[in-house]
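--- STAGE predict ---
source: upstream dedup step, 1 unique chain passed
mode: sequence only
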Amino acid sequence: FTVAASVYFFYMHLKTTKIIYVLPFLIFTVLGFLTKLSVVTTIPIFVVMAFLYKDKIKLTRSIPVLILVTIISFVFLYFSYPITEHFSGVSNNEYKFFDSYIGTFFAATKGYQNLIYEKAFYALSYAWQFTPFFAALVVLSIARLKRDRNYYAMVSWLIITFLIGFASSGQDFQRLMVIAIVPAILLVAKYVSDLNFFKKDLKFIIISGIAVFVLAQTTGLNDMSPTYASWLTGVFFLLALIFMILPKNRQILIGASI
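--- STAGE serialize ---
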């Protein structure tokens, strides 16, 4: 929520050029930093947005705002440790803050084979937790939506977060990618916004939803945990790929996602 709110208020500042949006942008960015340091991945996203909307507000105005908000957020983060230690009684003296996060960008295990397995697991597990069918909708929306500034802002949010998390090792990739759920949902919502969910498109949604539910129950897949047998998860990824090339693929994938 804090990340989505900070992106929204920065967007409103760029779109309207009103300084009033800077304060809530600062507040939610600080709260995001204090909640999870992975929010630092939003900094390059804000830079991209500043470039996309530079005809609305010049970079000489938007970039200094972004720099100031980032510095203040890091200052709050820095002082949060002694404050937390004072009230909780938990010492952070042995915790090497920067080493911990810089170290995540080196392979957790040695060897190219292990590294390939790790990265494949990152990508596939994220798609699996989205469900393969919703992940397919995200791919289709990126490929087919009209290219405008809002599109590039959302796609950069999704892709930059993914690439930063994908480059790291030994961290909880899925928790980091929570930051990218909002742009994924917005892209898909835009992609399916012209569908009629209560008339002609409803039957395709219901049929595909029932089919996937029955298949999941038949195979014993009663939740979307990626700890099941690889062949079973592979079946659902294959099914999602088949749905992508069928007529009425948007309706079918929506039903399957649900």
